Write the structure tokens for this entry.
Amino acid sequence: MLRKIIPAFTAVARMSSATTGAKLKGKVAVVTASTDGIGLAIARRLAVDGASVVVSSRKEKNVQKTVSDLQKEGLTVSGVVCHVANAEHRKNLLNEAISKFGGIDILVSNAAVNPTVGHVLECEESSWDKIFDVNVKSAYMLSKEVLPHLRKRGGGSIVYISSIGGFHPFELLGAYSVSKTALLGLTKAAAQGLATENIRVNCVAPGIVETRFSSALHESESAREAALSAVPMRRLAQPHEIAGLVSFLCSEDASYITGETMIAAGGMPSRL
């Protein structure tokens, strides 16, 4: 039943997003890992809301397809290959925004990996290093590297994509969950020092979102049922439901919000 509802649900969401206006008009956004899943939904929504958006992926063909698809929708986008753990790639990503659109107002750090499954203390050192290199260090480095560009614009917005697992770790995603907890702390620490510069730093913690990245949690009927049993709303999130929250945090509607983590998890346990 749920699978029959989702296509119509998504169609309604796209119709509603198309009429949201241009609350990000004149803004330039950079979104990492944005050719699929949550990242693609964020890039599309920011562009629908008026921003010029730079998308990125580790694969050139994915970048080209996404740019083509979004441009066919009448959206203002560009794209570049970027593996966020590569310093030269990060530089190219920011330069793409500057050369094509004249500056940067928004950074959405969405890229993440999870090469291992198991209890946190069973994680191999090599997997731990990879997870923290991509999920945490790269978010930190991108934030440092984008900062001069945000200052040139007189302010801006940084949004990290964490996870409900950052509050309540998934037993089989131990190291990944800890990396997402680290982003909650990074959000708080970074926001404090930038608040007087009109640079807001916030975070979004999604629950279980139906994407290719999370397929192990929903691709089989048994896995799906187990996942749904933990969600009071009894359905998985769709990527556009996370994208709308990110767009809000990047807009003037959230002008007095910084250092916060917004949870979109269908009622899953998080915090008081």
Remarks:
- Confidence is low (pLDDT under 50) at residues 1-19.
- The radius of gyration is 18 Å.
